[in-house]
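Our preliminary data section would be incomplete without showing what the modeling component actually yields. Below, a chain of 212 amino acids is followed by its predicted structure, encoded as tokens that our downstream tools consume directly.
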Amino acid sequence: MFIEDDFLTSPSERTFSGPYADNVHALNVRSGAVRNRYRGRSLPFEPNYLNAIRLILEEVRPQIVVEFGALEGGLTEYVSDCLSPLDYEYTILAFDLAGNPTSRLPVQGAEFLFMDHCIPVAEMGDRIPSAALRSTPLVILHNAGDRIIEDIQRLESLLKPGDILATTMAVDQADHNLLMKWANGRYLVMSRLCDLFGVNNIQNPNGFLIKV
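Predicted structure:
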């Protein structure tokens, strides 16, 4: 229900709004979220975002989830726990910078991969089936700061219409507006998901996008 045309909106029609448009509120929630733990791992996200991630995973049932900014693997483990009850085979490719404190403990269905300052596109191409071989959308979770446009541009050759991008970086209005401008004509905002708990009452305002 989140990827139907009636619930998709052009980025040009969406504004930086909702509780997280207030920088003080955003910083207060984020400072609290960074202390969140999940199965002993850091999970620095607020509940509305995590619920939205769960809902889209359950609807799409992706074969491949790609995560940038894995840190200790808390979100990786959360994603795996969302997918494992669905009883199908999936792969989570969890990328982070070499030297970040990613946990060495295994996560079901996940592979932790280390990179330098940029995404190793050739290496990803070996792990992600081509669009012709993928029967479900690719889901990309981008937690790696303000490099999102650069990172996604590197992956364009691997993406197809229907692939989904969820970013947590759009809490600053300037970054949000830059992302919306770049996404216009390339992606649509999954507005029903962004507004599930009230208009943009989520830590990544307008941050759920689907490729057109």
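The first helix runs from residue 23 to 33. The chain has one domain: 5-211. Preliminary results of this kind motivate Aim 1 of the renewal.
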